[in-house]
What does this fold into?
Amino acid sequence: MHRFYLREGTLYCEEQDLFELAAQYGTPLYVYSASTIRDNFRRLEAAFSPLNHLICYAVKANSNLSLLHSLAKLGSGFDIVSGGELYRVLQAGGQADRCVFAGVGKTRQEIQYAIEQGVYCFNVECEGELETINEIAGTLGKKAPIAIRINPDVDARTHRYISTGKTHNKFGIGLDRAGEIYSYAARLPNLQIRGIQTHIGSQVLSIQPFLEAIQKLLPFVKQLKEDSSIEFFSVGGGVGIVYAEALESGSPEWWQKTHPTPITFEEYAAELLPLLAPLGLKILFEPGRSIIGNAGVLITQVVQIKKNPAKRFVIVDSGMNDLIRPALYEAFHQVVPLKPTPPHPGDLADLVGPVCESGDFFLQDAKLPDLKPGDYLALMSAGAYGFVMSSHYNSRPLAAEVLVDGSRSFLIRERESWKDLIRAESALLAQFQ
Ligand code: LLP
It folds into this structure.
């Protein structure tokens, strides 16, 4: 469910006409719907209300300070994967003692910072990391809370770059070695065993792999609760979203595409609760995409229309540096013009960016309407892994971000300037003069 819709052919976010926002702030422009984020968060909360639980929003999906602030106000904890993400959460008003720190390569500096700030738990990925955390905690005169990330060897049936729960992935420790690693952790004097964690992948479109992973872990989790009196079991994130849907009936056929049924939070909870409730543990969730993905769009403007004997190219002012998902995962983002646009009688077209790479496309061989330079388009469901994965490639300043709440809109990230591009370098030129 989200609050983007077409009203007489014009795309709205809540009560806000997106054409007006694009004209006011320019493009590329990320726009988020505050009520969609709140609604997603509250629905997940409600679905798991029978359990003692904590939602730790995965900051990597979108780390804008204002969005983190609104999630913290809703009572969210945070799943962080770097010192930088912890810093952002704290600046945004989040609490360290509601943060879980994940990631395969935490540095000593990051570990020290997280212990000093008092994170709820480190999700640990290998023995060496246990030793490093133990040593740093000792130096600080503290006991560091830890959980081990278990790799259940389950196929999440998602894109191979975002599948994490198979043995050939770099993540977690196999169940066969889990007992041994927990015993080792228990012998390290500056660690406190607090929980157990798993995460099988992202954009998972069926509940089955989650159930498989949980079922595989259950006997071990029960044993661990007896042996080490752990507090929590984190089942990770990964619930997928729909990237193509009808915004209103009778919408132009070219932007509709068949899609798998999404997992609703209610269905997810109905299947997971019977397995998790009897454990009597606190259950942690680490959702990113399912909270923020469909709450954001990227607005772009058509710059040129180019034709060659093979194809028509609609060239827009956003590129793979602004939204890399199509280039990196061949991901599909539905494209919706902000205003009614007549159909194009001719061939299929590519929707491409200005970046100097052939991988810089949003759609290939798509039935795009008769777009003209100056027209605005929205790339839908770009709220997760959109802005956060953007780069300065081709010396392109990063996009601005706007949050819409009802009829009000707030700039939550200024558009970068060319000056911003050289800020960390320009003073250093002096050494060559
Ligand atoms: N917990 C852990 C340990 C994770 O590694 C991730 C995502 C999450 C939670 C959140 O997963 P989510 O609920 O958002 O699926 N850039 C890729 C997705 C990378 C996901 C990385 N880990 C994309 O654009 O599809």
